[in-house]
Fold each of these.
Amino acid sequence: MLSPMQHKKIAASLFSALKSGKALTPITETHPGISIDDAYKISLAFLDLRVVKNNEKIVGKKIGVTSKAVQDMLGVFQPDFGFLTDGMAVLDGRVNVDCLISPRAEAEIAFKLHTDLKGPGITGKDVLAATKYIQPCFEIVDSRILDWKIKIQDTVADNASCGVFILGDKKVNPNDLDMASLEVVVRKNGIAISRGMGSSVQGSPENAVAWLANTLGEYGIPFLAGETILSGSLVPLEPVIKGDKMHMEIPNLGSCEVEFV
């Protein structure tokens, strides 16, 4: 276990990396004894710096590393979790890559809540009942850890490697869909590069959201009405550079586009 002072010091280093664009040596190398509980406390301190120093507001939560494709790619074999702020939301579909370190695009399904949820004991059915609508979403993950050499403690401390997110325009009631059978096709610069199913995310996206509600509930953190919850990538992460354009399409749910400038 690390001390509260170490938590704050590591959080300050992550915040500095966010601001400077210079990645850190893996925290699991500099602090081999770090636990997931330590990592979560670091993430809270990191979040506090964003709120206090950047005047950001919390607008939701996210789960990551949920599908086998992403787990195999990163070598991390359990989900991570973090927070979304208004400073991470991209409203015009244009992402400035100069503000990121090593961005990768994920195609996800976002849940907009109309009811509070607090674990433990939340089920996928509870999530669907609490959801106002779902949207297609690109999350652009961006590790503050050098070369994406992460273990689960690194990514949890680093706010689940969240960079920015972009929501599609269409809003759909999830109860009108078979969530597990939803299929996304992702295109990069007009060429289809990957496809994935809702079932690849813990059996169905609402199950991933339930896991996140229960995990954060153990720390006394609820989901709040009005928040957006990202349920994890349905496809492998795709590195992106300036000039790239990404497009995702989910039949019956809609599309989302992002351009990197």
Amino acid sequence: MTRIALVRHGATALNLGGRIQGESEAALATEGVHQAERAADALASCGLNWCTLTSSPQRRARETAAHIGTQLGLAVQPSLDELCERRYGAAEGLTFAELYERWQVPMDDRGRPGVLDRLIAAGLVDRAEPIESVRARGVRALADLAGMTVSEPDAGVIAVAHGTFIRCTLEAIGHAEPVHIENGGVVVLAGDGASGWQVDRVFGQPSVR
């Protein structure tokens, strides 16, 4: 059985400032480095044979992968474009308070889950990526990652990606429970590709929201 660990990158200044990141590039903050190191500790505790490490090409993911690789003794392989974060277009760089004002979100909807998803689905956010596209990328990425495993017992692949990408990928494989992974959190999937993927374990998930 193949195992794939999807790791959310460590925090950046944009994360810590509550800003929508998307395609924006930022280095890891000091806390983000610590989160990457804790992710490596969690992966090491899994009892699995992590044979390959890759990431999205975005800076925060590559830096997180580099810290994980140092602790686990793995070289970071070429990045996969499919692992990139969702493109949020005109919403990138905004806090949610700023987003609510710019798109005049009704007071009753402010703070509720999925507000930005609904704005994008309604075609109100220029240059934003449809959620169906992100889910499709997630499925393609899992197929690519499964092809990177080796024929050894309990072998697995680590892929450093992004929060919305991971959420959409879990939705695409039919994982029904809402999952919010904190920066540096890890979701381990198990499967063989043909019969589908299941969530095997989760590290770094706060209360569901």
Amino acid sequence: MSDRSIPLEHRPMLKGAAVRLAETFDGIFGAETIERFLVTSYDQFAGRATVANFLPLLAERFARQRLQALARVEGKIGNGVPVVLFLCVHNAGRSQMALGWFNHLAGDRALAWSGGAEPGSEVNPAAVAAMAEVGVDISEEFPKPWTDEIVRAADVVVTMGCGDACPLFPGKRYEDWTLDDPSGRSVDQVRPVRDEIGRRVEELLASLGVISVRSG
């Protein structure tokens, strides 16, 4: 990693990340593309990371997601499962809970990502605690933006309060969910939002043929 904007102490870690990503995307993307995605992903978090030492890890995780999305857009990979993108303002509460519910209910039968118009610095602790109560761990998630390739790779885009800031791609299936923002709320206040999101995720997955609708 020779980009001058990256601190010297982070370059070896990003170099290791580039090696791992090259193994994952062997035969799909070249080293130049992988390094470009790593550097731009690093830059996305550099200005707002609360713990600088985590920057290389965040960059690797986000670059992996972006490369996976680009490979799908370009038809280089694809296992036929539906892809859903959850978007809100800060990617710290509603969209993270939706992602958690989705992964919990769908398993490997569908794929989901999340993003925010103005990503926050951390996932809302009340949202993390509320989801933990129902056996869903979102503590390792982190707020992130959306990128062009991520939106283009999604079959369904679910928006939650980001209004005109949400990306609009003609011909793509969109759903807008009106939900209370859990920001600044207690766990007690977040529980109803959590449960409503869970119900809507179930309905979405049923509409995609991933799960069956519960009776009763």
Amino acid sequence: MSQSDGTQSETLLVREDEGVLTITLNRPGRLNAFNAEMGEAFIAALKLAQSGSSVRAVLITGAGRGFCAGQDLGDRDPRKMTGKPDLGATIEACYNPVVRLIRALEMPVVCAVNGVAAGAGANIALACDIVLAAKSAKFIQAFAKIGLVPDSGGTWSLARLLGEARAKGLAMTAEPVDAVTAAQWGMIWKAIDDEALMAEANALAKQFAAGPTRGLALTKLAIHAAATNSLDEQLDLERDFQREAGRSDDYSEGVAAFMDKRPPVFKGK
């Protein structure tokens, strides 16, 4: 993918290789804190993944020593404004579309958290399907420090991943959670040695991109639905999704490869 396409910005790097669209938050001097330009570029990159026929997995990470410090507060300083800020407008323009796109993408989304993930940065990471974090990384619900409410799906993700007690504790104290603890609590998939993080994240994203993409997408959507479905509704959904997956070329290839004792060659169809 050319870096001159519409998603490219100095604040966000976008690259496609072997079916993996890698999105790198690129404001390292500000710990990759969001400004309006980066938010717009991020939305455009996710839409590109959504519409690109060659993209079969997404990898999100950050440049430099941190993943993302959330919103750049320098852009939302009430002292520089003539009236009260409308932070809801910021959420509606940037963070809600990002989270909705990540959750809706019909392909695996891997997040490699390479350092601090604070505020919206933490919650965007938690919106991804598979989260790997460097052992030096920390997740911080920093909102409480400035009188705000966790956004970017934070109240939703924390409650479902951790339960009410830990969700409230993290949200109301802004206490950092290290990557190893986050993995032990089921908040993320794995904590990885710092020097091995990107190699493992890239390998996993490429594994997904070479895999049975439609079946993986249906698995993702089914697990999302389980949060609100009754058991009967979920059983019906599994039936319908399995019917669709069973009619895919990838299922035929998977069975043929198993019977022939050879590696499968999936096309994502």
